[in-house]
Write a structure and sequence with these properties.
Length: 333
């Protein structure tokens, strides 16, 4: 079976998100879809998968919700079910930034399509910021992008406030370009940056996924793969399946191993988890504002990432990933 995967979001005003969520649970159960939808007073966000015949009526219904006629949807396909089950959650935010009084529907930065984006980030006076988390940036980003090295999106405001002060100390008010997986995190992060006093703020319309779908690889400024929040783990240009599987110890992406090797369930990768564990907390870290993420990844494999033959005997190497496992929702940010 071929699965249609729909990554969607919309900032809107939902007076009763619990009622909307209850209705969506019933509809998704009837249609037999899988994935996650997050509903809040500020709108809806999520990724769902199923046959084309089930995804079409679900998306059509979501477009009838208040303020959702212009719902942003990005479609892709998968050869197997990318989610184990269907979840519909009610949360305070559809993507958690933890900053009050932001209205992404009216305050977000200027959207740019792929061609305009390439021109903007080619300008040496433009500051390019990857708003995603460290484990995402580690497997791919735009050339010259700054990696905030965040563990979660809620860490971004603290990082940016330090970064903004650094710019002010230099007397700079540059153009700022920001990007994320599907666009939703940039709606909030660019609204935050504008609220902090920066006027020329831009973000990639439809996020990395739309860029990889539309931009010919020969003209692309993207390097590596793009992490996605489902069983595909990563995608490349044309949204083709990437070369990563998931480390089950900390749910971070690791390179695919040849089929003659077996990585035991729960064995750590030591790759991104250890890097995160050794990093200072957001309150104590000192930031580097000049080193592009593209110059730093991918990090080398540790000893515990070495392939283990399927017929190996003796005790397994304990995981070297010391960061605590993260529970991540299947958003498309």
């Amino acid at each position: 079976m071929s699965y249609t995967v729909a990554a969607l979001y919309r900032f809107a005003t939902f007076p009763d998100p619990d009622a909307i969520a209850a209705d969506l649970r019933a509809r998704c159960a009837d249609l037999g879809t899988c994935g996650t939808l997050i509903v809040a007073r500020e709108g809806i966000n999520g990724t769902v998968a199923g046959s084309a015949e089930t995804i079409a009526p679900l998306v059509a219904h979501i477009r009838t919700l208040p303020g959702c006629a212009d719902l942003d949807v990005k479609y892709s396909t998968a050869t197997s079910a990318p989610f184990a089950r269907m979840k519909v959650k009610v949360k305070p935010e559809i993507v958690t930034l933890g900053v009050d009084d932001l209205d992404p529907a009216s305050q977000a930065g200027t959207h740019l399509g792929p061609a305009e984006w390439n021109a903007l980030i080619a300008d040496p006076d433009t500051i390019l910021i990857d708003t995603r988390n460290a484990y995402e940036v580690a497997i791919g980003t735009f050339e010259g992008a700054i990696d905030p090295e965040t563990r979660a999106f809620r860490d971004f405001p603290g990082w940016f406030d330090d970064f903004a002060q650094n710019l002010r100390d230099q007397g700079r008010t540059p153009k700022i370009a920001m990007f994320c997986t599907g666009g939703i995190r940039c709606e909030k992060s660019t609204a935050l940056v504008k609220a902090r006093g920066f006027d020329e703020v831009y973000h990639l319309k439809g996020g990395i996924l739309r860029y990889l779908e539309e931009m010919p690889e020969s003209e692309s400024r993207w390097q590596g793969d793009c992490y996605v929040f489902d069983e595909r783990v990563a995608v490349g240009h044309g949204l083709t399946l990437g070369d990563y599987s998931t480390c089950r110890a900390v749910a971070c992406p690791i390179p695919m191993m040849p089929s003659i090797y077996a990585r035991p369930m729960g064995q750590g990768c030591g790759r991104i988890g250890a890097k995160l564990a050794s990093r200072p907390t957001p309150q104590s870290r000192s930031y580097s504002f000049s080193t592009p993420a593209s110059a730093r990844h991918p990090p080398p494999l540790s000893a515990s990432c070495a392939p283990r033959p399927a017929n190996a005997r003796g005790p397994r190497t304990p995981p070297s990933c010391h960061c605590r496992a993260r529970r991540r929702s299947a958003n498309n940010g």
